[in-house]
Amino acid sequence: MDLGALRKSYRGDEEAFEEQHLASRDPIQQFGVWFEQAVGCPAIGEANAMCLATCTRDGKPSARMVLLKGFGQDGFRFFTNHESRKGKELDANPFASLVFYWEPLNRQVRIEGSVKRLPEEESEQYFHSRPKSSQIGAVVSRQSTVIPDREYLRKKNAELEERYRETTVPKPAYWGGYILHPDVMEFWQGQTNRLHDRIVFRRLRDASAPLGDMTHRGEGEWVFERFSP
C-alpha cells in the first residue's frame, strides 16, 4: 500500500513555536503548561497516554502505550507489572523514553532518562486508590504470560470478585510503580511546510562547562537548543 499522498496540514509559520514562546525555561514546568492545554482540549481523550520505549541489555527495543500517573521535579510516574516484558527490560536496562503525541494540538513531547522503582509504600497507596475492579484485574493478569483463552481471564476474575467482595484486595508483589528521571526533554510542534519546531532541553551535569553559541541556559541544570527538523 502506497501512503505517499497521505499527509495533513499542521500550523502556519505565523504560529511557530519559538524560544520566546516558552512558558518556562524549566522543561518540567513547560511540560506542565502543554499538558494542561492537552487536558483542556476536547478532542484529546487521554492526555496522559504515552508511549513507553524500553530496551533489553543487548539492544532489542520494545514499546507500548501506558498512562502517566504523576509528574514533578523528581520525574514522571507510571505503574505496571514488574514481571511484564517492560518490567523485565527495565530491571535489566534501567533507561527508557516516553513520547506524548497530542495530534489535535500538533504537538509531541519526547523524554529520555533513567528509571527506578518507586518505594513500595507509594505503590501500595496508589494501588488501593484504584477502582476495585482494576485492583482485581492486576491480580488476575500475570502480564505478558501465555494464557489459553479469554474465558480463563473471565473465570479467574469472577473467582477473585467473589473472594474479595467484602475484603481488601492485596497488592501483588509483582505490581508497582516506576519513576523516570529526565535527562532530555524535547518539545515538538508541527508545521505544514515540515519545518517543524524542535526545542530540546538537556541536563548539564557540569555547570562550569562552556556553552556553544547556540546553546541557552535554562533553569537549574538545564540548557536548551533548537534542533533542525
The number of helical runs is 5
Q: Tell me, what's the shape?
A: globular
Q: Helix fraction?
A: 10-25%
SS content category: alpha+beta
Tell me what portion of residues adopts beta-strand conformation: 25-35%
What summary fits the major beta sheet?
Answer: 10 strands, antiparallel
Describe the protein's architecture and organization.
The chain has 229 residues and is of the alpha+beta class. The protein is built from five helices and ten strands; from the N terminus they run H-E-E-E-E-H-E-E-H-H-H-E-E-E-E. Strand 3 (70-72) and strand 4 (75-81) form a beta hairpin. Helix 4 (132-140) packs across helix 5 (150-163). The longest helix has 14 residues, at 150-163. It is globular and about 65 Å long. The two termini are 26 Å apart.
